[in-house]
């Protein structure tokens, strides 16, 4: 990991967008995308001066989408979803996404997306993009239901914290 002071390096965190944050016992780790899209990491010692909850996700939205399709159409939806996220991943405010299937329910596809957007800016700036057209057309044809959950993440744990 490269540790640096973003201000000394001239990195504008708001312009680059928060990639992800991790909290652990001694440090708050903030990863941001630098101009070459390589992860640069800054280790920050927690203090009372940092309001972690308001700092961490002031402009990040997470979507959890539960899609039910006819079981015979699940693989087609996965293929369309892969193409969709290949295109969306090129958007400057895209953070990451996961496309998953249920082992227990053959008609269920779960989509998890994180964006450096607010709910309002996502609806205004991302949803109208033509990338979504094949996905939405397929859902019209084979979809049974779709639930969209707008989530504000409060804490993330992963093996990097250990």
CATH C-level class of the largest domain is Alpha Beta
- What's the CATH architecture of the largest domain? 2-Layer Sandwich
Helix and strand succession?
A: HEEEHEHEEHHE
Q: What's the end-to-end separation, in Å?
A: 15 Å
* Sheet with the most strands, sense and barrel status: 4 strands, antiparallel
Would you give the CATH topology of the largest domain?
Answer: Alpha-Beta Plaits
In DSSP terms (H or I, runs of 4 or more residues), the helix count works out at: 5
How many domains? The number is 2
Shape: globular
Oligomer: single chain
Please mark out the parts with pLDDT under 50 across 5 or more consecutive residues, or reply none: 1-58
Q: How many DSSP E strands? A: 7
Biggest sheet, spatial arrangement of strands: 5-6-4-7
Query: Strand fraction band?
Result: 25-35%
- CA-based gyration radius: 18 Å
The average pLDDT value, as a whole number, equals 73
What helical percentage do the residues reach?
25-40%
Q: Helices and strands: which structural class?
A: alpha+beta
């Amino acid at each position: 990991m490269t540790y640096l002071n973003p201000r000394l390096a001239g990195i504008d965190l708001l312009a680059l967008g928060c990639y992800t944050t991790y909290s652990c016992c001694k440090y708050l780790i903030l990863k941001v995308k630098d101009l070459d899209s390589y992860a640069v990491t800054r280790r920050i010692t927690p203090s009372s001066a940092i309001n972690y909850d308001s700092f961490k996700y002031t402009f990040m939205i997470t979507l959890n989408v539960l899609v039910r399709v006819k079981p015979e159409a699940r693989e087609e939806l996965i293929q369309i979803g892969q193409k969709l996220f290949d295109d969306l991943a090129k958007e400057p405010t895209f953070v990451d996404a996961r496309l998953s299937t249920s082992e227990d329910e053959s008609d269920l596809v779960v989509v998890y997306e994180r964006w450096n957007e607010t709910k309002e800016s996502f609806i205004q700036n991302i949803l109208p993009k033509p990338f979504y057209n094949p996905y939405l057309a397929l859902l019209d044809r084979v979809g049974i239901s779709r639930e969209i959950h707008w989530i504000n993440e409060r804490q993330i744990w992963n093996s990097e914290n250990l």
